[in-house]
Design goal:
By secondary structure, the chain is α/β, with parallel strands linked by helices. It has 15 helices and 18 strands. The strands form three sheets. Strands 6, 8, 10, 12, 14, 15 and 18 form a seven-stranded mixed β-sheet that branches. A six-stranded parallel β-sheet has the order 2-1-3-4-5-9, with helices on both faces. Strand 16 and strand 17 form a beta hairpin. Helix 3 packs across helix 4. The longest helix is centred in the first third of the chain and has 14 residues.
Length: 453
């Protein structure tokens, strides 16, 4: 009785106090959001995202996960173990109460955590993974970034193991290079039957969203044959920001060096995709930093940060809000080719190459990736496997057009192999194949060497 009288008196004097004043009014969500920054980033990368989430969902909390991004000895696996410890120490509020919101390399930390937790690797707990509700990446280079080349060409060009000036750890940059052992192992796993249960988990047990940042392009660039070079957030290209990919594989280990083999690509999808105007970092007036949420978003009704609005819409409705104008404008594609090599080939770095074959079809324009055009040398050779990358633009107007791409694998000591596969706007296509030694060429080579010629 006394409590009720007190509440009435306080309300008369304008105090808005309810009988359950310790409980926020809006408790539609009682979960934990873990914000994971990217390489070279920090908690400041998200600016006011933590405060904006907690203001929007008073019963939830947001935790800014930080890791040693400048440490050259550590990798995303080390950071994933640290993430597992954080989740173990986070109070559970309901069966599925963890949401990962990840920027750039942060998405790879989260992916590593999911995979190793699912496989019950040392240092990980599958019970923590079962708490995961949403996996939301923002501008994550799932399949590599040219940005990572800075490790080899700038900060670690002299072969040093540590550079106190570099804001990026050496191993972290190496793992984000196209064709790194990290990516090759990931592709091998995700395209094998061994991963069927894990893929089922990604598709059915959690909500996955890839938010794809894109800087607005002048029409002259968006319509040009070099569009692929500019599409993205100024650090990561659009195809790499999607965990979804197309996969093709040659069926026969024996082949004719003169016939075209057709390797059909099938889509492998895990996540929904949301396009939004945004730069990788806060640096352009016409595109916000993809995760740099301004203080105006603390009052949600005043928020105009589109990537954050897309994130919140997905959390509340599971529906994908996306800028279809960006989607329709994308022309770029990637083709990544992994070639199993026979042992004993010589001069692989100089003589092994893939050549895109001339075609009367002008629907494809290849970019001069790494100052090349129709011919590509391997970006990586690891354990008798060579990794090649072609980049280009599809010049037709239809959305998600798929166009055939013919290429030849060449080396003086192998039987050339000609393959046709298909590439698609805004997607990466991975193709696995193999080559055989040319026995006739090998015999001629040995004879010339024996004669000293």
């Amino acid at each position: 009785m006394l409590k009720s009288i007190t509440l009435i008196i306080l309300s008369i004097f304008g105090f808005n106090i309810s009988a359950n004043s310790s409980t926020p009014k809006d408790c539609q969500l009682n979960e934990t959001f873990i914000l994971i920054h990217g390489i070279g980033g920090s908690q400041r990368s998200f600016w006011k995202m933590k405060e904006s989430i907690e203001a929007k969902y008073p019963c939830s909390k947001a935790i800014e996960f930080s890791y040693e991004t400048r440490n050259s000895k550590k990798t995303t696996l080390d950071f994933a173990k640290k993430l597992d410890k954080l989740i173990s120490n986070t109070k559970q509020t309901k069966p599925k109460d963890i949401n990962l919101v990840m920027h750039s390399q942060g998405g790879l930390v989260g992916l590593n955590w999911m995979l190793n937790s699912f496989k019950k690797q040392k240092g990980f707990h599958k019970s923590n993974l079962l708490r995961l509700n949403r996996y939301i990446s923002m501008s994550t280079p799932f399949w590599g970034s040219d940005y990572a080349l800075m490790g080899k060409t700038v900060f670690y060009s002299l072969g040093v193991e540590d550079n106190i000036v570099s804001p990026f750890g050496k191993k972290q940059l190496h793992y984000m290079k196209y064709g790194s052992s990290f990516y090759m192992n990931m592709i091998d796993y995700l395209t094998s039957e061994e991963s069927d249960d894990f893929k089922h988990f990604l598709k059915n047990d959690i909500q996955m969203l890839n938010i794809i940042g894109a800087v607005p392009l002048p029409k002259i660039l968006a319509d040009s044959k070099f569009a692929q070079f500019y599409e993205g957030d100024m650090v990561v290209n659009v195809p790499s920001m999607k965990i979804n990919f197309n996969y093709a594989q040659t069926q026969n280990k024996s082949y004719s060096p003169h016939n075209i083999e057709i390797a059909l690509a099938e889509p492998i999808n895990f996540a929904s995709e949301s396009y939004a105007h945004g730069a990788h970092l806060k640096m352009l007036p016409n595109a916000p930093g993809i995760v740099f949420v301004p203080s105006s978003c603390i009052k949600f009704e005043e928020c105009e940060h589109r990537p954050f609005l897309n994130l919140i819409n997905y959390v509340e409705t599971q529906n994908v809000d996306s800028n279809e104008e960006i989607h329709e404008s994308i022309r770029g594609f990637d083709l990544h080719v992994i070639v199993d090599l026979p042992k004993g080939l010589e001069d692989l770095e100089d003589d092994l190459e893939i050549v895109a074959l001339d075609s009367k079809d002008e629907s494809i324009s290849l970019s001069r990736y790494l100052f090349r055009h129709t011919e590509q040398e391997p970006l990586q050779i690891i354990d008798n496997r060579a990794y090649f990358v072609f980049k280009g633009s599809i010049m037709t107007d239809a959305i998600d057009d798929t166009v055939h791409f013919d290429f030849k694998i060449k080396h003086p000591q192998i039987k050339s192999r000609i393959i046709r596969t298909y590439v698609q706007k805004g997607r990466i296509t991975f193709l696995k194949t193999n080559v055989q030694k040319n026995k006739e060429q090998k015999s001629r080579f040995n004879l010339l060497r024996f004669l000293g010629l």
